[in-house]
Structures are given as C-alpha cells and as structure tokens.
Amino acid sequence: MSGFRELIGHFLFPAGVNVLGALLKLKSVSFCLSVLCTPGLMAKQDPSTLEAGRTSQRAPVAQARQPHRIRVNEDVQKAKVVHLVSPVYPPITGKRLDGTVVLHVIVGQNGAVNSARYISGPTNLKESAVKAVLQWRYEPTLVNGAPIEVDTSVSVVFPHL
Q1: Predicted TM-score (pTM) above 0.70
Q2: Number of structural domains in the chain
Q3: DSSP for 101-144?
Q4: Are 77 and 149 part of one and the same domain?
C-alpha cells in the first residue's frame, strides 16, 4: 500500500500535498456528482414516469409579466397627443399671469388622462393647468400589442399676456 501512495503522490500530486486528504476530497466530489447526476433523485415526480436514465424535467418557462405602467419621457408622450385643451387664464388678481406649470400625469390604457398632480410652477396657475390637462387625450401606448398606462410629466406654458 505504501508503494501505491508513493506512486500516486509522485505522479498526481505536487510534493508536500497530503495524499490521503486529497483522496478524501476526490471521493467526496465524486459522491456529490453521483448524487446530482442520478436521474429522478432530485425530481419531485413519480419515478415510474422516468425514461431509461432520463428525467422528464423541464425548466419552467419564464413568462415576462406585463408591466402595469411604464414611465415615458415628456417629449415622447407629447408626440402622442390627439386632443389638447388650452388652459384658461384665471381672473386677473394683480399677480403675474405667466410661467410654466409642471404636472405629474398618469395616462390610462385608453389614452385619457387619469390624474394630473401639481409638481412646480406658479401656484396661481396650478388649477387652470390641471383642469386643462385632465381633458387631454393621447394615442394609447402599446407594449407587446397590449395597451398600458403611462407615467409622464407635462409642462403647461402660460405665455405673458
């Protein structure tokens, strides 16, 4: 047996490596491989359904979930406007009546504006901007042929009168 160890140590392992330890590691690796490669051992199925050494397992097909809503750049969404209502200036109150109101907008699957929330701009023009944008209509946005909601921004410009 000692000649066998010397032979293995001389040809397979560099000097200083524990031959017995290396053999134990090799044996544990081969055991793990035999467990992993045994058909039907890890499969959660009836062993009678296994064909000669082959499993009938198939990787589950990952179906991409259709997103509920996507974010679209303001300029891209602006190109899809099919009905635009201009804002009505509020009654003159002695305050400045020009500026840009920025709104956070959710466009429904049918292209109608579902919500318009004030982000920034002159507060005295906020209500007029929201009322106008809620009447806008867009061409529906499609993802894989199906309509989808859109999350976007809208800038409503009130020029100086």
Answers
A1: no
A2: 2
A3: EEEEEEE-TTSBEEEEEEEES-GGGHHHHHHHHTT-EEPPEEET
A4: yes
